[in-house]
Structure formats: structure tokens, C-alpha cells
Amino acid sequence: MSHQVTIERPRSVAFGILLLAGIVTGIFTSLPALESPDYLQNLVHMKSDIHLAAVFQALMAGVYGAIAVILYPLIAMEDPGKARGYLVFRGIGTAFLFVGIVTLLLFEPLGAYAAQSTGSGMAQSEDPALLGSLLRQGRDWLNHIGMVLPWSIGGGILYLSFLRSRIIPPWMAWAGLVSSAASIVATGLYMVGLIKIVTPAYFALTLPTAVLEICLAFYVLIRGFRVPDSQMKGELV
Q1: Percent of the chain whose predicted confidence (pLDDT) is above 90
Q2: Helices (H), ranges, 106-169
């Protein structure tokens, strides 16, 4: 028996564009130079890079917040309780992205302090190195635990809802559940110190999420969210 569906075209296009924008802005928030052994000496020359990364992180946070809001009605259609849980977890993840902007900008005064220490004959001072180490670790925790963990839990709720509502193909919803679980495992292993961020194991566990999001973005841009009429409860806001 065939089922009538309604194509949520405007919402689909907005979501697809936002999903791709989130991936692009995420790429430009990274500062590989912070991982180099002599990053403290180079910080004073990285002001523009730091500011640019902070701008992209702010854009990324805004995009992620918009993604959370735009999908809420679709999940609420299937289960209002799931929708509230989804919004809470993804809201927490987005909030940590905004906090991460502050830690990123703190590298600028750290660079000035490191340069001042060197210029004053305090090259052997451990203060800048210690502060830098704490700042880098704090930024990693904010971005890869504070943000990723609740965002991935929200993703699990999202794909579970999509699996039940069949707004997207079941195989894609299952892939979303598996990739969300893999990201949660990666975060847990990182929290207890079993893996580091820039390692093959971490990439292997988190890459499926990025690949799926790209596939999902193009799917909804081309096909759209296919909402069964039997699940339509009034107008989607």
C-alpha cells in the first residue's frame, strides 16, 4: 500500500545548506600551528589567524544552533519528548562552541605575554608554557568533549526519530545511529586518555559522522524531507 508524503522543501534546503556550512566553518576553526612545538614563539604573529578562527567558530556555533532549531518540529511530530531531549542536548553542544571562542581568543594575550617574557630575559620562564598547555587542553576538552558528547547524543535521538518516522531512508537513519554511537565512544576513550585527538583511531571513529552528514545534506537538497501525511499533525512551524 502506497503512502502519501509531503515534501518539506524549504526546511530541507535550509537544513542541507546549514549542514554543509557547519562542515566548512568547522574546517576553518582549526589552528594546526597550535600543535607545533614552537607555537608559543609564533603566537604573537598569529593574531589574524586567531581572529579568523574565532569568527568561523562563532559562525559554526550559529549554524549548529540553527540546525537544532530547524529540526525540532520534525522530531516533535514523531515524539515531543524526544524533541525536547534532542533540543536540550544539541543546545548544550552549541553553548560549548560559544565558550570555545573565548578560549581561542585567549591565545592572543598569551602570545603577547610570551613575547614580553622573552624580551625581558625570562626565556626560561615556565609560566607561558604552562598557561599555553592549560589553554590548549581546555580548548580541546571544550570542543571535543563539551561540544561533541551532547551533540552526538542529540544526533542519536535525531536519527532514532528519523528511523521511526521514515523522513529519510532507513539505511541512512541506521548509519546515523551507528556514527553517533561511534562519536560517543571516541569521546569516551578520549576522556579517559586511551586515545588522542589527532590519531588514526580517533579519525576512524569520528569520520563516519562527517561522511554521513555530507550524504544527508545532498540527499535533503535533492529529495527533501519526505514527511508521511499520516504523521502530519497540523502545520509544521
Answers
A1: 61
A2: 107-119, 127-141, 148-165
